[in-house]
């Protein structure tokens, strides 16, 4: 008899276990819900520019460090320009020689003038000889050959004089041109000195310094980043599926990688209309509502953009919704599947606009 009772008790226990529901139940609740779009990004100064070297050289002096405020045309870095100074000295010497050659009393011009004076004397002598031979020829005192030789000598002297005078003008013009060219060259090499002094092209703050004193800088190298200290911008990358939800003025909750666990409030200020093929995302700008102390340009961050919010929404857990917005409702011992209309979605909760009521029992199979 005792063995039978034990068997019956065990059978009852097994029956109870086999009838235990293999699903979870929940009823919709009313409460606040917030929908947000996650985005990653970084902080950059707006209207920032990169100070770039236009020459090769070592940085012999760095006058600023990160965080410094600078004025327009302020000297920030100076490169070694000893080689450039040598070029300037050579150019100055060339100008001096060119100036001497272009002077009216230059030796080359004086030599040509002396040749012209001698040619003039010879031309006068040959002219007198030709005139005398012409008179003598009329009396047949000289031959026709003698007269022709005298005429040839005169024409040769005249051509020589003209050639020398042309040479004088050409030499003087070339000397003036060489002086102009050497002065232009001097101006160019002097202007090249400015490329060794890296100056600010507007007031701003030094956010990053890429090269320090003593570093070798090549032409085109980035030396520093400078931007407007009053225009810190949050740049966010938004995926294609979420960009349609973003509007200007929306609240953004930002967490900086340099200050984990602390949230800063910002708001959307601009939405760029183009798609970035490289990042496969859209770019959005946001600005902090309040100043953030110790902000560093280039800081990486994560953000949640609040796209919708409702205080009294009918909510069900997101895990109770299957594909096609279907849910299972328990009605007594029966279960029915129905399609619901959803509204705001958070990570865990979904707002229900229609399809279920507050008193319904929702079922999720285990």
Automatic annotation (TrEMBL):
PROSITE patterns: PROKAR_LIPOPROTEIN. The keyword Coiled coil applies. It comes from the Bacteria. Residues 158-192 form a coiled coil. SUPFAM superfamilies: HlyD-like secretion proteins. This is Efflux RND transporter periplasmic adaptor subunit. Keywords: Coiled coil. The keyword Amino-acid biosynthesis does not apply. It comes from Nemorincola caseinilytica.
């Amino acid at each position: 008899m005792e063995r039978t009772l034990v068997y019956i008790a065990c059978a009852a226990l097994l029956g109870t276990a086999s009838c235990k529901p293999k699903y979870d139940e929940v009823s919709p609740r009313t409460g606040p819900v917030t929908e947000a779009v996650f985005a990653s990004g970084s902080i950059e100064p707006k209207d920032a520019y990169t100070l770039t070297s236009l020459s090769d050289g070592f940085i012999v002096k760095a006058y600023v460090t990160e965080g410094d405020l600078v004025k327009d045309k302020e000297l920030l870095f100076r490169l070694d320009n000893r080689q450039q100074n040598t070029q300037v000295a050579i150019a100055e010497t060339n100008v001096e020689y060119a100036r001497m050659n272009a002077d009216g009393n230059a030796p080359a011009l004086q030599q040509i003038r002396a040749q012209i004076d001698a040619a003039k004397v010879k031309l006068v002598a040959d002219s007198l000889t030709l005139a005398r031979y012409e008179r003598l020829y009329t009396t047949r005192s000289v031959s026709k050959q003698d007269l022709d030789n005298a005429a040839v000598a005169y024409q040769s002297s005249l051509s020589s004089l003209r050639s020398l005078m042309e040479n004088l003008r050409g030499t003087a013009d070339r000397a003036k041109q060489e002086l102009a060219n050497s002065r232009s060259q001097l101006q160019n090499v002097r202007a090249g000195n400015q490329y060794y002094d890296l100056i600010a092209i507007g007031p701003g703050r030094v956010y990053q310094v890429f090269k320090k004193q003593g570093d070798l800088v090549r032409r085109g190298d980035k030396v520093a980043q400078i931007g407007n200290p009053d225009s810190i911008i949050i740049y966010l990358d938004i995926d294609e599926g979420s960009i349609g939800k973003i509007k200007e003025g929306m609240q953004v909750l930002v967490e900086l990688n340099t200050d984990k666990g602390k949230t800063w409030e910002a708001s959307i200020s601009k939405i760029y209309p183009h798609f970035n093929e490289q990042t496969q995302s859209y770019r959005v700008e946001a600005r902090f509502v309040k100043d953030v102390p110790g902000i560093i340009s280039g800081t990486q961050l994560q953000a949640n953009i609040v796209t919708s919010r409702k205080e009294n929404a009918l909510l069900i857990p997101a895990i109770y919704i299957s594909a096609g917005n279907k849910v299972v409702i328990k009605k007594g011992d029966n279960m029915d599947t129905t399609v619901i209309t959803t509204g705001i979605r958070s990570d865990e909760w979904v707002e229900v606009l229609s399809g279920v009521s507050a008193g319904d029992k929702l079922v999720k199979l285990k």
